[in-house]
Amino acid sequence: MRITPDLKLKALEVALSWLHLIDLSHYAKAYSISAPYFRSQITLGELSKRIIKVNQQIGETTNRTLKSTHHICKVPNAPVGDYVIIEFELETELQPNVIETITPVFEDGQWKICGYYLSVR
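Now predict its structure.
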């Protein structure tokens, strides 16, 4: 599929909405609107536990800046599809440089989150 700038912008909007739920600790809502593949890889309980643990280490997010977006068709260990890899640079209370990666996938006519990772630099 050809990912137009409008579709890529919609992927970014969906990612930001999902991240807002995570920022507010609304893990169940974020989980429920994630892609089925995401939900097949992690339970709600494990997702919540991991995010809480990381947040204890890095603190609250104080600033999120878009770093990059890339359309790809294959990600490791996932079905072939249309993905947008979105990276943000975060500033947090305890860590000045954190990279947040979120990956929406286009399925059934809409973007859904299928991956989420944080790395401290």
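Residues 5-23 form the longest helix (19 residues).
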